[in-house]
Write a sequence for this structure.
């Protein structure tokens, strides 16, 4: 990012309007601020996690116009106010889980849970494009979301169960 | 305000009935021999641990019928809270919404030692189960006394005492003594007539944190925020921590970064503190530092270095005369195996929030830890404050695996909070997560000489172990002559425990070697193991795996193979795995098609938790043997990214079949956190041999190594 000379950064700050989980939110920030930290620090949406900062783990995945994107690699200046951002908090609440979130509970599709919001976001994007993915299609779509606890088999089961209604035993 | 554990318990006691349960040492709870901690070292490693406190679990019975349990050990994503919930709701017969479990708060929770070694369920959860059963009995006795009733007329049901004659007469536990503190000593070995017996049933409880996890509302340390919180992270020397120091730094560019409140050299590191994490990242990128480059050979040839510096430590096991045994054997097989450096690589990097009170004399720290009391002890040393002035509150952990026992991040956050006079949240960059501590699971070397008789029985086992602790060698294979020695070498990186102290490394080496011994005399590897295992209870596990994976089978495709691995984890947990692989001759990639594994781990508290943990352990093992490696040379660690390191992915996921033979040896649960990794690594290596007839003596078995070997053959 050019122009960020020491001491002159006030110039690089600007107001941005974002559409997050169906609400208009305004924030004054540096233009190259990653969306991840705006969600976490300015909007208190901490379900979106920092795992690597370079877009290789998927823990910070959010939907932007329905596509799963790495929010650590999306600068705020590259998101327009017309684009719809959806975070894990926008998919369901504890009282009203989305069907996919329910499937993740039922199949214990997590270990420590740190990567899980990113997993659910990525799977939500997959299912919007392809409501009945095969095991192979699930693996392909999810392959860049990392889980160190190795919950992959459970995640695959949860997505399969959600999509085709067949019930592999949890 | 300073609240000690004692004060907290007293404050509860005024309106509650409080049970403080201690355990007869050596009974239900295991006391572990310890080695003193090296003092004052901030980058400390957990090797062993001291337990000089009594095991004091607390059960608080409230007026509204709810119960609070304060216990030791922590939830690390392994499902410990779920296990405890299953145990206490059943043990005290109460619904889960009337149970509160507090773990890892050093003000109020007992010190049960670190949550390591797959021992929490066995050592703590099962003790709590026994305590619940004893509590039921004790509360009936108390109710009989306070309400002048006959014990024989009373039953404990639904968390209360009822009269058998008049079922509507209900006595809540708290009514037997509001404000009382009852000290109960539990001896699970006591004669059965003195004990309540109740068979535990797995009711298939959901993970207690499931709904918070799937909605993103579970708050990890990095998710917490106090007014005025500042972020911080470190710039570190590029060389091995043990060998280098910072010579000079130029911080002017970094300090001029907008939004940064402080950039400062502290010892051999530079810290940046800012309101926004991205500004910390920017400032650290602008730090210019000059470090002493340690004098070392450019290429760290691990095996040679380990051998050259080896110092004999101890004899691990000795029986008979191993040299005579080898000399008189029909065939002997002599081989060397080497393993590689690995990292924990949790998805949550080290994170902690700390708030030092004005005056700098009292601090609260929030972080995820495998040993909160150890964090408090270290903070006390580092901050020069009494332990009572340090309040550590355990938060959910985004993966620990041995790497979050008492990592420096909590000390750093507390120290920085005192320096800057505001709450500080330290979050490590991914690069720092890999490189800053300079601690890895050690590369190890194993020299085997094994003799076998014409009858296919092992005669002599000689093993020299370098670096590895050699746990898991005992009681796996029987032989009349055994000599196992342990050597250590000081290396430029620190030894750390990862999914176990050493079982994975020895598991790979020993099981690969045993396969070669079997093949040297033309025996089937499954059958050879059936004939030579030290414990009979391995045989049904081997049979179960053979059955699940259909071994022996005809019709394996070209370059496909099936292999087996065994593990006896501390004589408590036993596991066998069989792997079916296909080796791609074009890419060199080993595709693991299926893993079938069987375990003997005692009573299972929650099959869903265990299955999730074991599947995850199998995938960990797959990554360990085929993909992951920390890259380092004489000077530096180079691994910086998760993808470089080789964390396994969805596309690595094999079909997994599991069997639990817990009915064979029921009773106390024996844990399974580390166990599934160990037989998996060996089973895969042995399946690769079966597939292409090539033995890999060094891990990981990467596509590059496979291609190289296939090119030569």
């Amino acid at each position: 990012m050019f122009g960020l000379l020491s001491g002159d950064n006030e110039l690089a700050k600007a107001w941005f309007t974002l559409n997050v989980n169906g609400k208009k939110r305004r924030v004054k920030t540096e233009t190259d601020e990653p969306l991840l930290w705006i969600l976490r620090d300015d909007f208190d949406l901490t379900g979106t996690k920092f795992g690597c900062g370079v877009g290789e783990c998927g823990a910070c995945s959010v939907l932007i116009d329905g596509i799963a994107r790495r929010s650590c690699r999306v600068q705020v200046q590259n998101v327009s106010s017309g684009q719809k951002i959806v975070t894990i908090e926008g998919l369901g609440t504890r009282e009203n889980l989305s069907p996919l979130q329910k499937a993740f509970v039922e199949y214990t599709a997590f270990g420590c849970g740190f990567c899980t919001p990113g997993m659910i976001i990525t799977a939500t994007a997959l299912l919007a494009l392809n409501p009945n993915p095969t095991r192979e299609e699930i693996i392909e779509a999810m392959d860049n979301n990392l889980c160190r606890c190795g919950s992959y088999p459970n995640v695959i089961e949860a997505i399969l169960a959600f999509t085709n209604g067949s019930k592999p035993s949890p | 305000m300073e609240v000690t554990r004692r004060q907290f318990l007293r404050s509860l006691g005024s309106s509650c009935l409080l049970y403080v349960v201690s355990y007869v040492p050596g009974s239900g709870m295991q006391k572990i021999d310890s080695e003193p901690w090296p003092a004052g070292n901030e980058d400390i490693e957990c090797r062993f641990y001291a337990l000089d406190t009594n095991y004091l679990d607390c059960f608080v019975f409230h007026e509204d019928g709810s119960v609070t349990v304060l216990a030791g050990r922590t939830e690390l994503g392994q499902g410990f809270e779920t296990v405890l919930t299953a145990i206490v709701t059943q043990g005290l017969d109460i619904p889960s919404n009337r149970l509160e479990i507090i773990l890892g708060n050093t003000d109020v929770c007992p010190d049960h030692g670190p949550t390591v070694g797959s021992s929490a369920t066995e050592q703590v959860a099962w003790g709590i189960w026994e305590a619940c059963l004893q509590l039921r009995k004790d509360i009936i006795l108390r109710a009989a006394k306070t309400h002048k009733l006959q014990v024989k007329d009373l039953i404990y049901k639904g968390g209360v005492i009822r009269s058998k004659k008049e079922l509507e007469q209900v006595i809540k536990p708290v009514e037997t003594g509001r404000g009382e503190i009852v000290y109960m000593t539990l001896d699970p070995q006591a004669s059965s007539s003195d004990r309540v017996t109740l068979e535990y049933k797995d009711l298939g409880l959901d993970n207690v944190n499931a709904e918070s996890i799937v909605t993103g509302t579970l708050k990890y340390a990095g998710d917490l925020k106090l007014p005025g919180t500042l972020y911080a992270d470190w710039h570190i020397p590029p060389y091995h921590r043990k060998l280098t120091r910072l010579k000079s730094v130029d911080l002017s560019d970094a300090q001029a970064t907008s939004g940064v409140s402080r950039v400062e050299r502290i010892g051999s590191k530079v810290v940046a503190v800012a309101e926004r994490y991205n500004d910390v990242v920017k400032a650290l990128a602008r730090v210019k530092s000059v470090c002493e480059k340690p004098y070392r050979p450019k290429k760290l040839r691990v095996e040679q270095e380990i051998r050259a510096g080896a110092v004999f430590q101890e004899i691990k096991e000795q029986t008979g005369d191993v040299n005579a045994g080898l000399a008189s054997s029909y065939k002997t097989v002599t081989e060397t195996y080497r393993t590689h450096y690995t990292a924990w690589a949790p998805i949550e990097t080290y994170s902690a929030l700390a708030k030092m009170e004005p005056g700098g004399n009292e601090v609260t720290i929030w972080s995820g830890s495998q040993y909160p009391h150890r964090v408090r002890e270290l903070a006390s040393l580092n901050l020069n404050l009494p332990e009572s002035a340090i309040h550590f509150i355990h938060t959910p952990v985004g993966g620990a695996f041995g790497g979050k026992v008492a990592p420096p991040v909590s000390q750093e956050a507390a120290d920085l909070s005192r320096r800057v006079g505001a709450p500080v949240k330290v979050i490590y960059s991914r690069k720092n997560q890999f490189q800053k501590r300079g601690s890895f699971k050690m590369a190890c070397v194993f020299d085997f000489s094994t003799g076998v008789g014409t009858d296919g029985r092992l005669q002599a086992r000689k093993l020299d172990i370098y670096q590895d602790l050699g746990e898991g060698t005992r009681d796996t294979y029987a032989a009349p002559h055994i000599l196992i020695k342990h050597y250590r070498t000081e290396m430029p990186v620190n030894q750390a425990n990862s999914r176990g102290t050493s079982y994975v490394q020895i598991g790979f080496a020993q099981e690969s070697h045993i396969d070669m011994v079997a093949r040297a005399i033309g025996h089937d590897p499954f059958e050879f193991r059936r004939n030579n295992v030290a414990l009979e209870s391995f045989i049904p596990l081997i049979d179960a795996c053979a059955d699940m994976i259909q071994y022996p089978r005809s019709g394996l495709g070209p370059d496909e193979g099936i292999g087996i691995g065994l593990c006896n984890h501390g004589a408590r947990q036993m596991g066998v795995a069989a792997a079916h692989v296909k080796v791609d001759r074009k890419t060199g990639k080993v595709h693991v098609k299926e893993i079938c594994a069987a375990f003997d781990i005692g009573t299972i508290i929650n099959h869903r938790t265990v299955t999730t943990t074991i599947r995850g352990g199998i995938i960990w093992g797959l990554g360990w043997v085929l993909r992951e490696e920390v890259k380092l040379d004489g000077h530096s660690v180079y691994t910086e990214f998760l993808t470089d390191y080789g964390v396994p992915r969805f596309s690595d996921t094999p079909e997994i079949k599991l069997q639990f033979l817990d009915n064979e040896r029921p009773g106390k649960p024996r844990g399974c956190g580390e166990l599934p990794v160990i037989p998996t690594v060996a089973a895969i290596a042995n399946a690769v041999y079966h597939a292409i007839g090539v033995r890999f003596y060094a891990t990981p078995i990467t596509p590059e190594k496979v291609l190289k070997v296939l090119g030569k053959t």
